[in-house]
Specification:
Elements: E1 6-11, H1 40-47, E2 57-62, H2 66-72, E3 81-84, H3 90-104, E4 109-114, E5 118-120, H4 122-139, E6 142-147, E7 158-168, E8 171-180, H5 185-194, E9 197-207, H6 208-218, H7 220-226, H8 232-241, H9 247-252, E10 258-263, E11 266-268, H10 276-279, E12 288-290, E13 294-298, E14 304-307, E15 312-316, E16 321-326, E17 329-334, H11 341-351
Parallel strand pairs: 1-2, 1-4, 2-3, 6-10, 12-14, 13-15, 14-16
Antiparallel strand pairs: 4-9, 5-11, 6-9, 7-8, 7-9, 8-10, 16-17
Helix pairs in contact: 3-6, 6-7
Length: 356
C-alpha cells in the first residue's frame, strides 16, 4: 500500500481548551492518553505505519510544545518537527508544511491530519487514505475524507457530496458540492436522512503542487507571506502579519477541484469531555473512565471520569457528571454543560493564568 513520495503532516499545535484541566498549555489534549495508554499524537503517527514511512512524517506544532512532542514521539526525525512562532489556525500551518515538503520533493503527495482524533479500525482508515492518494494523483484534486454520519450530530461541520466521480482503490469518490457549518438539530436530521452529507473530519490528501497552487489562488496573503522563508526571524515577521484562517474557509470552500471519499470507519474528534463516552468502555453503571487513575463508584451512574495516574476519584449518589482531576485542579460539571469549560479557561486567563 505504501506510495513513493508520500508525506504525512500531523497538525499538533492546538490548545485543547475544552479538555481543561487535564489539557494545559504545556500539555494539551494531543499529548494526553485520553483513549489509551499512549498520547493521542503517538497513536496518530503509529496509525500511519505501512502507508507513510516515518522519515516522511512531519509534525507542525508550536515552539512551546516542541520538547513535549519530542518526548512523546522520540522516533520523529528532528528535522521533521516544524515549529510555528504562534498559532494562526490550519491554513498557515498547512502552507508552512507544504513549502517545506516542496523543498524536499516537489512531486510529493501529502496526507494532512489532526493529531488528536480517534479512528478505528486502522486497516479501513489506511485503505481510505490509499484511495484518496490515488484520487489526488489522478487529476490534481484536493481530496477530503467525509465520515458517513451515524446520528444527527450538531457538533460537526458537514460536507455535501455531489456527482460521483468514480471509484479509487475500491472506494467511491464524489465531487464536493459544498461545505456546511455545524447545523441545528432539525437540519442535522435532514442531512442524515438524505445520505448526501458527511461529517467533515478535517483530513486531507493532495499533491504538494496542487495545494500550493490553491493557496496561491485562494489565500494569496498566506501564500505570499510564507513563500521563500528560510530564516526564523523571517518566519516570525510573516506570522505577525499573516491571516488566521482555517483551511476550509481559506481554500476548500473556494476551490472547484475538491473531491470527497465517503468513509465508514469509526471516527471521533474527541472535542469535549462527554465525547469520551463514545471512545471509552463503560462500567456496569454507565460510567466512563480515562487517564490512568482509579475510580470507586457507589450508586453513581453515567459519569465521565478522568484522573491522573495514581489518583483516586470516589463518586457516591451522583449521575450525569463530568469529574476531572489533573495536577492541582479539579473540574465538576453536568455532562450537558461541559462545553462551558471554555468559559472557565477564558476566566482563568485573566484571574489565574498559572493554572492553564
Amino acid at each position: 500500500m505504501a506510495h513513493e513520495s508520500l508525506y504525512a503532516v500531523v497538525m499538533a499545535g492546538g490548545a485543547g481548551t475544552r479538555f481543561w484541566p487535564a489539557s494545559r498549555r504545556a500539555r494539551p489534549k494531543q499529548l494526553l492518553p485520553i483513549t489509551g495508554e499512549q498520547p493521542m499524537i503517538t497513536q496518530t503517527i503509529e496509525r500511519l505505519e505501512g502507508l507513510v514511512d516515518l522519515e516522511r512524517v512531519l509534525v507542525v506544532t508550536s515552539e512551546e510544545l516542541a520538547p513535549a512532542i519530542r518526548e512523546a514521539v522520540p522516533q520523529l526525525l528532528p528535522e521533521n518537527l516544524i515549529l510555528e512562532p504562534f498559532g494562526r489556525n490550519t491554513a498557515p500551518c498547512i502552507a508552512l508544511a507544504a513549502f517545506e515538503i516542496e523543498r524536499r520533493d516537489p512531486n510529493s503527495v501529502q496526507i494532512v491530519l489532526p493529531a488528536d482524533h480517534v479512528i478505528s479500525p486502522t486497516d479501513r482508515f489506511l485503505s481510505a487514505l490509499d484511495a484518496a492518494v490515488h484520487e489526488a494523483r489522478a487529476g490534481g484534486r484536493l481530496v477530503t475524507l467525509g465520515v458517513r454520519p451515524t446520528h444527527p450530530a450538531t457538533g460537526y461541520g458537514y460536507i455535501r457530496g455531489g456527482e460521483k466521480r468514480g471509484v479509487q482503490a475500491g472506494w467511491e469518490v464524489r465531487e464536493v458540492s459544498s461545505f456546511v457549518e455545524k447545523p441545528d438539530a432539525a437540519r442535522a436530521k435532514e442531512f442524515l436522512e438524505s445520505g448526501d452529507y458527511f461529517w467533515n473530519a478535517g483530513i486531507f490528501v493532495w499533491e504538494t503542487r496542487t495545494i500550493l497552487a490553491a493557496l496561491r489562488a485562494h489565500a494569496t496573503g498566506i501564500y505570499d507571506a510564507l513563500a521563500g522563508i528560510d530564516e526564523p526571524a523571517e518566519l516570525v515577521r510573516a506570522y505577525e502579519r499573516v491571516e488566521s484562517s482555517p483551511i476550509d474557509v481559506a481554500v476548500m470552500e473556494r476551490a472547484t477541484n475538491v473531491s470527497v471519499v465517503p468513509v465508514d470507519f469509526e471516527w471521533n474528534d474527541v472535542g469535549s469531555w462527554p465525547s469520551l463516552a463514545d471512545v471509552t468502555p463503560a462500567d456496569s453503571s454507565g460510567n466512563h473512565q480515562s487517564g490512568g487513575g482509579r475510580l470507586i463508584a457507589r450508586d453513581a451512574r453515567d459519569c465521565i471520569v478522568y484522573g491522573d495516574e495514581g489518583s483516586l476519584i470516589a463518586l457516591v449518589g451522583v449521575e450525569d457528571l463530568v469529574v476531572v482531576q489533573s495536577g492541582n485542579s479539579v473540574l465538576v460539571c453536568p455532562r450537558e454543560r461541559a462545553q462551558e469549560v471554555k468559559a472557565i479557561v477564558s476566566q482563568l486567563e485573566n484571574e489565574a493564568p498559572d493554572l492553564l
